[in-house]
Every structure is written in structure tokens, then in C-alpha cells.
TrEMBL record:
Organism, scientific name: Malassezia cuniculi
Annotated GO MF terms: thiosulfate-cyanide sulfurtransferase activity
Protein's UniProt name: Rhodanese domain-containing protein
UniProtKB keywords: Repeat, Transferase
Domain annotation Rhodanese: ranges: 25-149, 186-321
Pfam families associated with the record: Rhodanese (PF00581)
PROSITE patterns: RHODANESE_3 (PS50206)
GO cellular component terms, A-Z: mitochondrion
Length: 328
């Protein structure tokens, strides 16, 4: 029996035409623009909210601000876009007109970059009816689908009964203490995949954020997130990314893990360790979700180390965490 059909759970990844068809249905999904820009030093800064307001955007979408719908302050070492509390998440969902039963479709303006983090957040809070718009806004435009350019309208907020406070699937979020303990777990060590560029993983390139050591978590494996994405040529020559096909994802991830047991080890760990077979990390917890999405396409659940290298590298710079470096 098809699980998606039986449980009324939509596919995790949907193409533009599929989303457009849903928008014409009697129960259209809630559309979220979850764009976030890294704005690395030297690059021209972009403001995701300003771009959303100016348009164009996917019709009926509202802006999900990953830096505001997040836990902030000293309790999370002032790190950005950390997982929101359950109450904060539920309140944000209601403000965006999202009920517990709603189908939510998430996109970003780079193709596949920041949107997977919001898809992950919904899933981690047990919201099953959430999908990624594959290729994001550029793919939507390339398909010639309608765009919204007028000032966006605010969604109609829902009352508390529409989205009760959910429970976070704690196995999907990894803490510093768990990651530290994993290093010394020997044969029981869980695989850790690092989504940052290979040179940053190796420690041969500086980190883009000040006060953060270079290198990687000891025992982790490098799998830069662009490896699981395919590049497409968009309007006027602009490039954007989409998820690779399932068979390609299998080959890429299995090859990256060749010295660590391959995908078979992830599947074994997933069946033996709280149904989460791998921990994922990146610079700030954003692009680790791209790897999470790729693994989901292969039926493997992963947990994200929410602090990621911003937290670990800052601790390492203060002598509080070990660091490994390697040749690329």
C-alpha cells in the first residue's frame, strides 16, 4: 500500500507543476517563502524579507523568517536560527494561517538552499504534510507559472485550537554534549556528515565568521551539500539548484561514506538507534537540512546538530572542544 496515499501524506519534494495544480484545488496548501541568505564577507548583501515584499513571489505565499522564528539569546550562545520552542513554532504557524492539518509548501529564492531547514523544522515538530518546492522560485518562474508582484497580503491568523503546541522529535536535534559523547563511542559511534565546503572541513580555508576555529568534528565525514543538488539554467542565464534523482543520491552518499561503512551502515544505525541513522552538521545548521532532505529521499532519518560549526568552532577556539584537520 502506498504510504503517502494511505495516510494522506504528500510527497516531501514537489515540482512546480504539481504545486501549481495544488493551488488550483479546493484545499490549496499554505505557501511559505523561507529564503535566507548567507551574505558572506565581500558579497553584495541581500535582504530576504525585502525581496519577498518587492516580489515576484509564488502566489499566496507568506514569509517565514527563520531568524525570528527561532530560539535566541544566551541560552543558545546567541547563535542564529536555532530551533524554536514548541510554543513559538505553534504560534508562528497560527500567524501564518497554518492549521495542524494544513499542507505546507516551502520554497526559497536560490532553488534549494534554505527552504529545507523549514521543511525539517515542520517535520521535527511532527507536521507530516509539508513539502519542498523543488527548484524554488527560479524553477517556478522557469516553468512560466503565475507570479505575484503586488504587495503581499497578510495571512488570516488562526486561533490556538487550530495548532496546539506540538512535541519536538528530540532525536532529530543533536546537542553539543551528544556530539561530544559520540566521538568516544567507539563501535557505537553514529556517522556524522558535514555539509560545509571541503576546504573548510579540512581546515585549509578560514571560516567566514570571526572567533571560530577551522577544521571539523573528529570522526566526521565531509559531504558538501552542493553534491546532492543539480544545477539548472534559469531565466536570463541565472543558475539555480534542484534535488538530484534518488539513484544519484544513493551513489553520491554511498561513495562519500565508502570508508565508513557506506549507506548500509546508515540503514543499520537507523534501525538500531532511535530510528535516526546519522547526525548532520554544517556552518550554522542551515545547509545540514539539505543533506537531511537527500537522506529522506532514501528513507533515512537524520538528526541535525543545531549549533553546527558556529557552536563547535567557537567552543574549540576557547579550548572547549576538540578539532580535527585533514588534507582535502
Amino acid at each position: 500500500m502506498n504510504l503517502h496515499r494511505a495516510a494522506n501524506i504528500p510527497p516531501l519534494v514537489l515540482g512546480p507543476q504539481a504545486v501549481a495544480k495544488l493551488l488550483r484545488s479546493e484545499a490549496p496548501p499554505r505557501i511559505l517563502d523561507a529564503t535566507w541568505f548567507l551574505n558572506a564577507p565581500g558579497a553584495t548583501p541581500r535582504n530576504a524579507l525585502d525581496e519577498f515584499r518587492r516580489g515576484p513571489r509564488v502566489p499566496t505565499s507568506s514569509f517565514w523568517d527563520v531568524d525570528q522564528i527561532a530560539t535566541r539569546g544566551e541560552s543558545v550562545r546567541n547563535l542564529p536560527h536555532m530551533m524554536p520552542s514548541a510554543a513559538q513554532f505553534a504560534e508562528a504557524a497560527r500567524k501564518h494561517g497554518i492549521a495542524r492539518s494544513s499542507h505546507v509548501v516551502v520554497y526559497d529564492r536560490l532553488g534549494v538552499f534554505s527552504a529545507p531547514r523549514t521543511v525539517f523544522t515542520f517535520r521535527a515538530f511532527g507536521h507530516p504534510r509539508v513539502s519542498l518546492l523543488d527548484g524554488g522560485l527560479p524553477a517556478w518562474e522557469e516553468a512560466g507559472l503565475p507570479l505575484e508582484t503586488a504587495p503581499p497580503s497578510e495571512p488570516q491568523p488562526l486561533d490556538a485550537s487550530a495548532y496546539p503546541t506540538p512535541e519536538l522529535s528530540s532525536a532529530w536535534i543533536r546537542s553539543f554534549d551528544e556530539m561530544l559523547a559520540n566521538i568516544g563511542a567507539g563501535m557505537r559511534r553514529q556517522t556524522v556528515l558535514d555539509a560545509r565546503p571541503a576546504a573548510r572541513f579540512a581546515g585549509t580555508a578560514p571560516e567566514p565568521r570571526p572567533g571560530v576555529a577551522s577544521g571539523h568534528i573528529p570522526g566526521s565525514v565531509s559531504l558538501p551539500f552542493p553534491a546532492v543538488l543539480a544545477e539548472r539554467g534559469g531565466t536570463a542565464g541565472a543558475k539555480y539548484t534542484v534535488m538530484r534523482e534518488q539513484h544519484e543520491l544513493w551513489q553520491i552518499i554511498d561513495r562519500a561514506l565508502a570508508d565508513a561503512g557506506g549507506i548500509d551502515k546508515l540503514r543499520h544505525d537507523a534501525s538500531a538507534k532511535d530510528a535516526v541513522g546519522v547526525s548532520l552538521t554544517c556552518g550554522s545548521g542551515m545547509t545540514a537540512a539539505v543533506l537531511w532532505l537527500a537522506l529522506q529521499q532514501l528513507g533515512i532519518d537524520g538528526g541535525i546538530y543545531d549549533e553546527s560549526w558556529m557552536g563547535w568552532g567557537a567552543r574549540a577556539a576557547n579550548g572547549e572542544a576538540p578539532v580535527a584537520k585533514s588534507a582535502e
